[in-house]
Amino acid sequence: MSATRIAWAHARIAILDLIRSPGYVVPTVVFPAMFFAIFALPAARHDSQTAAYVTLSFMAWAIVGVTLYQFGVGIAADRGRPWERFLRVLPAGTLVRLFARIVCALAFGALAAGCVAILALAATPLHLPAAAWLAAGTFCLLAGVPFVLIGTAIGYWCAARAAVPIATASNLLLAYAGGLWMSPSELPGVVRTISPFLPTRQFGELLWSVVTPGNRLWPALGLCAYAAIFGALTIAGYRRDEHRRYA
Questions:
Q1: If you compute the radius of gyration of the chain from its CA atoms, what whole number of angstroms results?
Q2: What is the arithmetic mean of pLDDT over 4-22?
Q3: How far is residue 191 from each of residues 43, 86, 198, measured CA to CA in Å?
Q4: d(CA 176, CA 172)
């Protein structure tokens, strides 16, 4: 069997494994839309421009939350499971397992972001052309990759108990400082200075460029740099864990 088919088989198994746990799937997919309804909907109801901005921001946060927090913590917990030990003896290398993780995380992230978009369409004057939705969906999937890798790096380098607070703090601080919960111009001075260098801000810049003119090159390059750094950390952490447990 080719490496591509093995990778898709691993991704399919990972998705089916999670789907069979409604207690995991429902909160993971619904929570971003619930927070959008509580904190953003009152402001988004008044005009379509505000609705577009906050909807795209919360779609980005949905991707970040699912990929970084849920999968970072999940990997740290999974490392001790018998199922994980069984998967380690299957004919799949590090890159195959990593590809499966990315596909699985992006699938659930896309569902969470889709719930935010559906709620915004139903409860706000948001109206975007099909091309804008296509661009937003493409940016969500591509820009979600570095956050999956940040989450997997946390999962492979941290103990299960440490991964929870680290992933939680990373998710919340990056969302706040990246301007996903408020306009970057409203951030405090120091935070506003470092904000453009954060992956959440770069993610937001890409999505906001769908409705307002913006430079897409530098945010895209920044996200590629984060993907390269945390991809390398993930592979190193995976091999370190494998050596400790199975060597």
A1: 18
A2: 83
A3: 23, 45, 10
A4: 6
**C-alpha closest to that of 198 among 173, 163, 166:** 173
| Length of the chain as a residue count | 247
CB 203 within 8 A of CB 219: yes
Q: How far apart are CA 148 and CA 52, in angstroms?
A: 25
What phi-psi label fits residue 155: left (phi over 0), alpha (psi between -120 and 50 degrees) or beta?
A: alpha
pTM for the model: 0.89
Token duo for residue 223? 């996200």
The strand ranges marked E within 128-233 are none
32-48 burial: b if 16+ Cβ within 10 Å, else e: bbebbbeebbeebeeee
Read off the pLDDT of residues 200-214 as tens digits, 9 standing for 90 and up.
Answer: 999 999 999 999 887
Residue 228 has pLDDT above 90, yes or no: yes
Q: What is the 3-state secondary structure (H, E, C) of 94-151?
A: HHHHHHHHHHHHHHHHHHHHHHHHHHHHHHCCCCCCHHHHHHHHHHHHHHHHHHHHHH
